[in-house]
Design a protein that fits this description.
- The complex is a heterodimer of chains A (284) and B (240).
- Chain A has 284 residues and is mostly helical.
- Chain A has eleven helices and two strands; from the N terminus they run H-H-H-H-E-E-H-H-H-H-H-H-H.
- Chain A has one domain: ABC transporter involved in vitamin B12 uptake, BtuC, CATH 1.10.3470.
- Chain A has a two-stranded antiparallel sheet.
- Chain A is globular.
- The termini of chain A are far apart.
- Chain B has 240 residues and is of the alpha/beta class.
- In chain B, the strands form two sheets. A six-stranded mixed sheet of chain B has the order 5-6-7-3-8-9, with helices on both faces. In chain B, strands 2-1-4 form a three-stranded antiparallel sheet, with helices on one face.
- In chain B, strand 6, helix 7 and strand 7 form a beta-alpha-beta unit.
- Chain B is globular and about 45 Å long.
- Classes of the chains: A mainly alpha (284), B alpha/beta (240).
- The structure holds adenosine-5'-triphosphate and magnesium ion.
Chain lengths: 284, 240
């Protein structure tokens, strides 16, 4: 029983981190229609920067917040490169892949290729239903719930959130209404960067971060986000949980070497289901 | 204001009178290669209804986009002494958002975000307010588009291709609203219309735009009788 509970809780926690990455995808896509494959790089920078700040003697919470802010700035820079010019969407996507590769190179030069980690939330591990769970997961849970809640409020309830959604819904009409579409897009990149940065900072204590972790993080984040058609924060959270749990149960009961493969197979199923749903709704 | 009879392109001084709500002055707009507007001077007075007619590709939509700041003119000047709201060609709603959110976003630049006055004007929209705008019929969408523009509390509305794709009865219903807005609230209207008969019928003045230039302008009733205009835009002989 305790193994099951452990997989369950670890799966939920990792799922929440994927969901954090996924909400970054959703945010940027919802406002700019760019699929930002540098989202995983945001998480890598979040983890690595937190590591360096901690080594400089800055307290944990402050380090994490500073890292998230720094990644928000990286998000802004990536946003400027990706959407500032009149670049077709397909090219923007390629640009984000290029930025992800550039990020890997920078991360390797600055932090090397050895996985780095730091301890998470201080205090003893706690025991739930016989399973030992790291305290850090509690932080993951609280922070992600707060962020998901804020995002649901932003898009679902606030006028500003509707204006952000309007930018991608019909950029021309948004401009006619006086919305500064470009600025909203950059804001989405800033927030997407912060979300990725926080995800990375929270993930590193439970899973050491490497310069090239961005690819798998991007894929898992994207997989979670695509469950909601890249536009629904709520479904992205559900998607993150599904992938987190799948990964844990597969690696726990079967073999760790299969977890990514199974997650990717699941992604294909989700994509097919999405395509069918879109066809049925006539959204193609 | 003394209205000139139908003339060929007049000199600037005649075109931009003082006190006009909206005026352009030798406006030139280029797309990368082509010149879309080639020295357009026109004006709309406070509370006036003005038609802008012309063949496909004449530059009508380009003029409206330039007036609302989407396009930057290469040369020339725009004077606007009031708030302009643009009802764009093809409705251009936010299809994923609800009717109510579409309307409320019309007030993005400021002012009241309460859509109730729009529901008073178009009662059908009240029942549809929670529906996604993308799922409405063409006529309903046109009402939302006009409603969204009205939410900006404009002094002048530039309406592009009001009748496009709509049944005649829906068109006359929406036109009735537009005329009422003009008469009751004094909102000026610049109406771009393929249906020249309709446009000349409800406006007091009109411009004919051809190849990016104003080729004719004058009182709508005079233009409707002008043989060349009649032949090109009203299909047939004068007096038909
Ligand atoms: N985005 C664009 N890029 C390049 N050329 C454009 C663009 N938009 C319009 N044009 C060109 O500018 C000219 C004027 O176009 P515009 O849309 O203003 O005409 P219009 O009078 O509104 O026509 P219609 O009655 O068909 O709506 C046309 O020759 C058109 O091909
Ligand atoms: Mg047009």
């Amino acid at each position: 029983m305790s193994a099951f509970t452990e997989y369950l809780i670890t799966g939920v926690a990792r799922g929440l981190v994927f969901a954090l990455l996924a909400t970054g995808f959703v945010l940027i896509y919802r406002v700019t229609r760019v699929v930002n494959f540098a989202q995983g790089a945001f998480a890598v920078f979040g983890g690595l920067l937190t590591f360096s700040l901690l080594r400089a003697g800055i307290p944990q919470g402050v380090s994490e917040v500073l890292a998230a802010l720094a990644v928000a700035v990286i998000g802004l820079i990536f946003g400027v490169i990706t959407i500032a010019g009149k670049i077709p969407l397909l090219s923007s996507l390629i640009i984000t892949i290029g930025l992800a590769m550039l990020s890997e190179a920078i991360a390797m030069l600055a932090w090397g290729s050895i996985p780095i980690s730091y301890s998470g939330l201080a205090g003893h591990d706690f025991v739930i239903l016989g399973a030992v769970v790291q305290r850090q997961y509690l932080l993951v849970l609280v922070v992600s719930l707060v962020l998901f809640g804020s995002m649901a409020l932003l898009f679902g309830r606030t006028y500003f959130g509707k204006a952000m959604t309007a930018c991608a819904s019909n950029a021309y009409a948004a401009k006619l209404s006086g919305i500064n579409v470009k600025r909203m897009g950059l804001l989405a990149f800033i927030l997407g960067g912060a979300l990725g940065g926080i995800g990375g900072a929270l993930l590193t204590p439970v899973e050491p971060m490497t310069y090239n972790a961005d690819v798998s993080l991007s894929i898992l984040g994207f997989a979670a986000a695509i469950v909601g058609g890249l536009t629904s924060p709520g479904l992205a959270v559900a998607g993150g949980l599904v992938f987190g749990l799948t990964e844990q149960f597969v690696s726990g009961y079967w073999s760790p070497s299969y977890d990514t493969a199974v997650a990717l197979a699941l992604l294909i199923v989700v994509l097919l289901w999405q395509a069918r749903r879109m066809r049925l709704e006539g959204l193609e | 204001m003394k209205l000139p009879a139908v003339t060929d392109v007049p000199s600037r001084e005649e075109v931009v009178p003082d006190g006009a709500l909206l005026a352009t002055y030798d406006l030139v707009v280029r797309y990368s290669s082509a010149v879309a507007l080639d020295g357009v001077s026109m004006h709309v007075g406070r509370g006036e209804m003005v038609a802008l007619i012309g063949p496909n590709g004449a530059g009508k939509s380009t003029l409206l986009n330039t007036l609302s700041g989407i396009r930057r003119p290469a040369a020339g000047r725009i004077v606007c002494r009031g708030k302009l709201a643009h009802v764009p060609e093809g409705r251009q709603l936010f299809p994923e958002l609800t009717v109510e959110d579409n309307l409320r976003l019309g007030a993005y630049r400021g002012g009241s975000r309460d859509p109730d006055p729009i529901y008073e004007l178009f009662p059908q929209l009240h029942g549809l307010r929670k529906r996604r705008a993308g799922g409405l019929s063409g006529g309903e969408q046109q009402m939302v588009s006009i409603g969204r523009a009205l939410m900006a509390n404009p002094d002048i509305m530039a309406v592009d291709e009001l009748s496009q794709g709509l049944a005649p009865i829906v068109v006359s219903d929406i036109i009735r609203h537009l005329v009422a807005l003009n008469e009751e609230k004094g909102i000026a209207v610049l109406l771009v219309e393929q249906n020249a008969r309709l446009a000349l019928g409800i406006t007091s003045r009109a411009y004919v735009l051809e190849n990016g230039r104003v080729s004719k302008e004058g009182r709508s009733e005079d233009l409707a009788r002008d043989p060349a205009v009649h032949k090109a835009y009203l299909g047939g002989q004068v007096g038909q």
